[in-house]
């Protein structure tokens, strides 16, 4: 553990790979070759290896002895288990947000919703997917339960991975307008409605999942992290 407040190279590399997964630029099952990543990030292979170990602990990367690291490819059972877990956690998130959110927190939520709408209007699918995931991480942070927040920081990127694996290519990660309705219920302090809307929302996202194989994606390793 680094005591320094500045993020280490390893943390930054792990974050950027996570972002690439959240934006569906790195599809499930793709090999993460150390030498290629070391070139793209202009760092040593040791740092890349450490970053991949961090991501493996979070479930986003799978390490195979003698074969190397691959973007994880969760099964359909994993997908169902993940959504079941999120329904448990996020009902509590909504309750704690209603109990603890300040006016500034509510403004942050509104600002996030605005960014999501702008990305939708601009047809920026990558941004929509990433912002959709980040909405849930933001709610968890505002909820203030750091154990749940830590879990959500891990589960949201995994959800994006599952969506890129099992969703139809043109469905956005979170159905439009559902986030705003959750935020409105939170602003009204209407716990019953906010919790119900969140559970329905997660069910809708899960219902979009399909078992169709996914299209091949061309990956430009050097430009992705430039
Ligand atoms: Zn959502």
From TrEMBL:
Gene3D superfamilies: GntR ligand-binding domain-like, Winged helix-like DNA-binding domain superfamily/Winged helix DNA-binding domain. This is GntR family transcriptional regulator. It comes from Uliginosibacterium sediminicola. It comes from the Bacteria. The keyword Cytoplasm does not apply. Residues 7-74 form the HTH gntR-type domain. Keywords: DNA-binding, Transcription, Transcription regulation.
């Amino acid at each position: 553990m680094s005591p320094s407040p500045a993020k280490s190279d390893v943390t930054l590399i792990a974050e950027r790979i996570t972002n690439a997964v959240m934006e569906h630029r790195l599809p499930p099952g793709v090999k993460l070759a150390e030498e290629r990543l070391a070139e793209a990030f202009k760092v040593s292979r040791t740092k890349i290896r450490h970053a991949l170990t961090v991501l493996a602990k979070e479930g986003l990367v799978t390490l195979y002895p003698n074969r190397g690291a691959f973007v994880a490819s969760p099964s359909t059972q994993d997908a169902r288990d993940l959504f079941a877990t999120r329904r448990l956690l996020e009902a509590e998130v909504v309750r704690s947000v209603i109990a603890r959110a300040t006016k500034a927190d509510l403004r942050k939520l509104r600002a996030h919703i605005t960014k999501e709408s702008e990305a939708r209007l601009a047809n920026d699918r990558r941004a929509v997917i990433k912002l959709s995931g980040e909405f849930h991480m933001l709610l968890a942070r505002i909820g203030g339960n750091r154990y749940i927040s830590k879990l959500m920081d891990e589960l949201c990127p995994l959800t994006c991975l599952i969506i890129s694996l099992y969703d139809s290519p043109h469905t956005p990660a979170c159905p439009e307008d559902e986030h705003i309705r959750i935020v409105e219920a939170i602003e009204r302090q209407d716990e019953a409605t906010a919790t119900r809307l969140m559970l329905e929302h997660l069910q809708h996202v899960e219902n979009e999942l399909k078992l169709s194989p996914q299209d091949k994606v061309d990956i430009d390793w050097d430009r992705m992290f430039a």
